[in-house]
Amino acid sequence: MFPVLSQRLLIPIAALVGGMVWMWAAPAAMAADGSEGISLFDGQYGVIATVLLVLLAALPAIALATVITAMGNPISGVFVLGVAMMFPAIYGGRIDGWLWRWGSPSAYWVLLAEMLVWAGALLGVVVLMETARQPLRRGLPRLATEDHFGPGDLGLRWPDGKALIAGLICAGVGGALATLLLAVSDTGQVMGALILAFGAGAVLTQSIVPQSNPLPMLLAPALLGMVAYAHVPLQYTSPDALYAAWYDGRLWGPAMALPIHYAAAGLVGVTLGLGLAQAIDHSRVAPAADTA
Length: 292
Fold this sequence. Notes:
Blueprint: H1 5-22, H2 26-29, H3 47-71, H4 75-92, H5 96-102, H6 108-139, H7 161-181, H8 187-208, H9 215-218, H10 220-235, H11 239-248, H12 259-291
Helix pairs in contact: 1-3, 1-4, 3-4, 3-6, 4-12, 6-10, 6-12, 7-8, 7-10, 8-12, 10-12
């Protein structure tokens, strides 16, 4: 996925710098009582201020990811964005604090609305990366290279039926694997499970429905999050029932991840899976070209 040395060096630097700055906004996005769980709709300064602070702190990560996208494999910049987002996501901790603060199955509708906000923000940033890629490549010719496995652009366009099917398959496979892997709400397990689930989901999806428009697959984690958040209030009718399921280990695993977890770890998983799928495809095409 990252065959160019300059890009391999700058990817971790960009992710680290962007993540550290982004984490500056994490305390402001926490609840006033300091309990765990970052939620844009539950920050101590209110919804609007929390969203603006998180967006402001995200600007360095977005800028650096856009430059990485322009340098070589365009999916690398999306990967950098996801890794940088993991800093505040891990800092914020597990969903337990949010569950105690809200204490109602119907509150999961709030998480569904927040997931829509994260998905819309991701869509806007990815479109920005696509738009800025070619102008940046012309302005930074010494950094730009074609020596990478992926296509020359992200290939964003209005999804056709094939791309939508790919997104649904990725969400389905990711959801099935996340259900198996997510047993508790521990932050490390949640993040690791989502990365593994959507990494495998993206690779499998590309092998079943190979296509060049990655947008529905990039949004697949958000789709799973929305399904999980809608499931809880439909399944449980009272706080006691929700808490009993939580303590007994019967709460559906994907419902134990916050929107920022899906936006960060899910995105990292999909981009890693897409990169691996590109490498596999390249390894098949290269020998055929050599023998032609």
